[in-house]
């Protein structure tokens, strides 16, 4: 897992530099949508655990959450000025403070999930997982067009 995390950090560093200089709005949109898809896929890996559908394995959960924490930082670079479009509402740019507050709360909730996973406390992981999910819903409700 440490090798995977190291590689993810290198991708994060490289993409942060690259993300600030998208060649087109379409590139920024594709970047953020792709980052959200990868993030959602890894968050989804925890769903069966918190629902009790698979046995709790503290080490495996900790590994997934460590990756989620890294991935949670990626999409935001794709929301710079002039990157309006995709499924994003114009409110992201018109009401940037609310969007930034929502993003910040998401990151805070992911960090709380990481702390819960590090403690190996399944009930705390469940609670934190639900708070991460609520952050996602809040952002989608306020800043994403319904499909």
TrEMBL record:
Entry annotated with the keyword Heme: yes
Keyword Signal appears in the UniProt entry: yes
InterPro entries per the UniProt record, alphabetical: Cyt_c/b562, Cyt_c_II, Cyt_c_prime
Residues binding heme c: 136, 139-140
Pfam families referenced in this protein's UniProt entry, alphabetically: Cytochrom_C_2 (PF01322)
MF GO annotations: electron transfer activity; heme binding; iron ion binding
Post-translational modification: Binds 1 heme group per subunit.
Entry keywords, A to Z: Electron transport, Heme, Iron, Metal-binding, Signal, Transport
Full protein name: Cytochrome c
Source organism of the structure: Pelistega suis
């Amino acid at each position: 897992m440490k090798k995977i995390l190291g590689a993810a950090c290198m991708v994060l560093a490289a993409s942060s530099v690259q993300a600030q200089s998208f060649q087109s709005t379409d590139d920024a949109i594709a970047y953020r949508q792709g980052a959200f898809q990868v993030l959602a896929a890894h968050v989804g890996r925890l769903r069966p655990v918190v629902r009790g559908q698979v046995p709790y394995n503290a080490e495996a959960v900790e590994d997934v959450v460590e990756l989620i924490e890294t991935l949670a930082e990626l999409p935001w670079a794709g929301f710079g000025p002039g990157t309006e479009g995709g499924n994003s509402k114009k409110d992201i740019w018109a009401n940037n403070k609310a969007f930034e507050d929502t993003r910040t709360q998401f990151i805070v909730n992911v960090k709380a999930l990481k702390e819960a996973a590090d403690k190996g406390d399944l009930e705390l992981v469940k609670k934190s997982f639900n708070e991460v999910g609520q952050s996602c819903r809040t952002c989608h409700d306020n800043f994403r067009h319904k499909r």
